[in-house]
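Notes, p. 3: input format for complexes.
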Amino acid sequence: MNDKALLVFDEKEQTFFWNEHRLKSIDFRSRSLNGLFKENCSYTLIKNFIDKDIALRIKEYYIQKKMRDVFYNVNSTGNDRIFYYLNSPYQYPQFIKSLIMKIMEFKNKFFIYTDFYHTYCMVMGLNPKHFEKVACTQSLHSWQAVYWYKNGQSHFKHIDNYGELATFLILSELGKDYSDGGLKLYCQNEEKVLDDLYNYGDLCLFDQSKLFHEVVPIKVEANQVGRLQLYVPTIPLNYMQETLVFENYPNRKFYTRKQSIYTKIMDRIRPPYVSKDIHYSRKEFKHYEYTL
Ligand SMILES: [Fe+2]
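Output follows (292 residues plus fe (ii) ion):
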């Protein structure tokens, strides 16, 4: 049972559920202290997080002809993206919403070994061990994205802010979908390209606030599709505006934290808030198919 996928896909419901037996076998404490939050090289890989075949189906879903044009390119050297805000007016396929929430819940089982997580739970009045509930609150002020790196695309070397914790679900493979490049971590004594280590369906977690990292230029041959991953970060509270508006819904407000009834009522009474300042990540990405 342990070699089976950690998350199992329910075809009919289009949702994911835990393989409880395998979930119980994971030593989150050890993986956190000796891997993900280790000083000199902070990452951990979960092999077979979802089944390889499901990962391939998700890849096919995003690279199908109709979906290709949906991706947004921020600049020519960076990757193409589809953004998700679960706290928004947009309709998303059930499978991706379910997958994102499960990844966020799973991530919290590691996050609990940090001071940041405990402070967050204390401020928000949450029980740190209620991982799913904490994930629901985090989703109010987090976005996610499918990243698609095509030939020559890269992400510059940088380090992120305290409290951000990266998770990537692997939907493509080095050697199959692209021939060179990948995520390079600048560990204390060495440089590590994680793309050498993961396969379809694996989950990669790394502490993006601890290590410099970059995606070195991806090389895509004529018969390859490129590098595709689902990125699920945790965005710390207050990094986002308190109120978000989205493309095509200028009069609807979405709150990134709990608001008082008074604020909500006042927002309804005040004249409509019309904003032209909608971040590119909050644009509407149309999905042509809603099932996997
Ligand atoms: Fe980063």
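The chain has two domains: 27-239, 243-278.
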